[in-house]
Structures are given as structure tokens and as C-alpha cells.
Design goal:
Layout: H1 2-21, H2 29-36, E1 42-49, E2 52-59, E3 67-73, H3 81-92, E4 96-100, H4 120-126, H5 130-145, E5 150-159, H6 161-170, E6 176-182, E7 199-206, H7 208-211, H8 214-223, E8 228-237, H9 240-243, H10 252-269
Parallel strand pairs: 3-4, 3-5, 5-6, 6-7, 7-8
Antiparallel strand pairs: 1-2, 2-4
Helix pairs in contact: 2-3
Length: 271
């Protein structure tokens, strides 16, 4: 009996480990399948931020003309399969998508997002030094702007944690043509005076934590003489740009919000 119990216990542990291994925050098989079918050229490059080496995904549009760069800042889940698929969609819209993995060198054995065990990515994101994040983003942007296919115009867009980093990056990068904040928190009020680019917000109706910041942000940006245009999508939840694509998501408002937000984003990029 003891032997049987030990066997059952061991099998339970193995089953639990297998379940955990498939529950990585950064893993979205449906997004990975879409990437595999993309006709667009993508490549991984290494950009340097001082002594740091930052793995960066670049996806090119199918265009005969030089195109603007969109710096894509990933969610709190790191440079996930979905973040990479989103970069491909940005390229499909006609822009050079540049998506740095801000966890480069921070993972097990010096790895990046894909090398973390389940539960490790969000904890690691929370420990990233803000100056390091800014340096990594600047390095990726500078690299991309020097690409022969780039026309010198730079946008930034980020989601969730990356939305907050997008807003903060706008306080540190003077040559931005636009910043697109998807359900992310604002920077410190005293830093908003440094913003040069217009900031466009995309928020979920069912996201009280982030939505509570909008009135004060609107007032602070207005007081600083800055452009801030927030739009809230009713019924959608935090993370609707990802959830609205997920075939297993049960909230139809997420899909509607994603479609409306994407149309608005494309329109603003084309200005």
C-alpha cells in the first residue's frame, strides 16, 4: 500500500509539473501559430545598452518605401508569443515593428523571457531598474532609426506594464511622433512637462485600477500644456488587445474593443 501511495504521489507531482510547464505567462500557442503563417520578414538582432545585450525582434512591412518605426513595449508577461504576433500585425499595417525583450540577460543562465519558468516573468519584470528599461528602449529605438528601411519617424506603443513604460518613455524621448498607451498607468506629474509627443490612451471599461488614474492624468497633462487623448472601451477588461484575439476568451466586448482600438491606432499612426 505504501508503495502504491508513493507511486500515486509521484504521478501527481509529474502531472502538476507538466501542467505548470504549459502555463507559462509568455506562451500563447494560438499567437505562435499565426506568426508561423506570416509572409513578413522578421529577424532577431542584439542591440547594446552599455554592457547589456538586448535581444530585439524586428518585423518589416512589405513596402517599397521607407517606413516609420513603431517601438513595441511588451506586457508584464515579457516578450510573449502574443507580443511578437502583435509586432507582426504592426508590420502588416505598414510599419517597422521593433520589440525589445526587456528581460534580456535577466533570465536563468542569462536568458530572456522564454527561459523563465512559470510565475517567474512577472516577478522579474517588477525588479527591472527604470533607468535600465529606458536605456534598453533608447538602444532599440536608435538601432531601428538607422535601418535603411526606416524613414526617421518614431512612435512608441505599449501594453499593460508596457503601457506605463510607454507613457514614462515619452517623458524621456524627445523625438517621438506619438505615444500610444494601452491600459497603462501615467508617469509622475512632475515629469509630464518633459513630454513632447501627443499621448493617446486606450483603456478598458472594466479596469477600475487604471481607469481611476485618467481624470488626474487628464488634468495634469492639460496643466502642462500637453496633448492627451484617452478613450475607454465599454465592457472590455484589462488586456483586451490580447484577450480580444484569444480564441478562448469568453468576453465579446474584448474583441469589439480590440477592433475599435486597432482602427483608431492605425488612423492615428497614419496622421
Amino acid at each position: 500500500m505504501n508503495r502504491l501511495l508513493r507511486l500515486l504521489f509521484a504521478l501527481a507531482i509529474i502531472g502538476s509539473a507538466a501542467k505548470t510547464a504549459t502555463a507559462q505567462e509568455w506562451s500563447q500557442p494560438w499567437a505562435r501559430e499565426r506568426i508561423a503563417k506570416s509572409p513578413r520578414h522578421s529577424e532577431w538582432v542584439t542591440v547594446k545598452n552599455g554592457d547589456r545585450s538586448v535581444a530585439t525582434l524586428i518585423v518589416y512591412p512589405e513596402s517599397k518605401d521607407k517606413r516609420p518605426v513603431v517601438l513595441v513595449i511588451h506586457e508584464i508577461f515579457g516578450l510573449s508569443d502574443w507580443a511578437q504576433e502583435l509586432a507582426d500585425e504592426v508590420a502588416a499595417a505598414g510599419y517597422i515593428a521593433v520589440a525589445p525583450d526587456l528581460l534580456s540577460g535577466m533570465g536563468p543562465n542569462g536568458g530572456r523571457t522564454k527561459d523563465f519558468a512559470a510565475g517567474g516573468v512577472m516577478e522579474a519584470i517588477g525588479r527591472l531598474p527604470p533607468d535600465q528599461v529606458t536605456g534598453d528602449l533608447n538602444a532599440a529605438a536608435d538601432y531601428a532609426l538607422k535601418l535603411p528601411a526606416a524613414n526617421g519617424k518614431l512612435f512608441v506603443a505599449g501594453f499593460c506594464w508596457g503601457g506605463g513604460q510607454t507613457f514614462r518613455f515619452a517623458t524621456n524621448r524627445r523625438d517621438l511622433s506619438g505615444a500610444f498607451v494601452f491600459y497603462g498607468p501615467p508617469p509622475a506629474k512632475e515629469d509630464m512637462s518633459r513630454i513632447k509627443a501627443p499621448v493617446y490612451g486606450f483603456y478598458a471599461g472594466n479596469d477600475a485600477r487604471i481607469d481611476a488614474t485618467i481624470p488626474d492624468t487628464t488634468a495634469a497633462m492639460k496643466a502642462a500644456g500637453k496633448t492627451y487623448d484617452p478613450v475607454t472601451y465599454d465592457g472590455a477588461g484589462h488586456g483586451f488587445m490580447r484577450a480580444g484575439e484569444n480564441p478562448d476568451d469568453s468576453n465579446p466586448a474584448n474583441k469589439t474593443a480590440r477592433e475599435q482600438a486597432w482602427a483608431r491606432w492605425e488612423s492615428l499612426l497614419a496622421k
